[in-house]
Amino acid sequence: QITLKESGPTLVKPTQTLTLTCTFSGFSLSTSGVGVGWIRQPPGKALEWLALIYWDDDKRYSPSLKSRLTITKDTSKNQVVLTMTNMDPVDTATYYCAHSPEFITGAFDIWGQGTMVTVSS
Amino acid sequence: EIVMTQSPATLSVSPGERATLSCRASQSVSSNLAWYQQKPGQAPRLLIYGASTRATGIPARFSGSGSGTEFTLTISSLQSEDFAVYYCQQYNNWPPPWTFGQGTKVEIK
Lengths: 121, 109
Hints:
heterodimer; A: mainly beta; 7-stranded mixed beta sheet; 4-stranded antiparallel beta sheet; B: 6-stranded mixed beta sheet; 10 strands; 0% helix
């Protein structure tokens, strides 16, 4: 059974850096073709694809946010970390991590519960 | 970036009726199209991938069709638990982003 859970601060100040951790179980991020991604959703709005890291450490980012995002993995800890710099109130959203299996690279079959992040001074 | 446009924004349907949701891509995504269901306060759930393949555990009343730029999600007989927001996502183009539509809310008529 695959599970993922996001953790991190619920409140950050403008200009600060956000660091979110996705801790997962039920699969290995060293398995060929597997990835873990991050998606966010502002309150009442649609989903936005942010970043994805693959089993071989290949990394893909949303072009509009690429300069602010970094995604890394720690296979031994079953964790994926997303950092987003220079946070702004428009970045207030629920942030989800999700499992991307080989057969639907870029899409997600199992999602974490999400973590709400508010950007405010 | 490929833009995904869903219609209608809101669909009012009575329980037991059929619901038909549309998703259009600004350029061809082949069959690399997924549908998700999201209920209030919950994470999205994968329903359909490859435009027409039901994900594990998804009831047969959910079906997907289409290819290229035009896609449809059909719920054959709406159950109470089906009232939710539905999103399409393309995962075809490289490089990313693998964009989502803006969602269709299916509400009780």
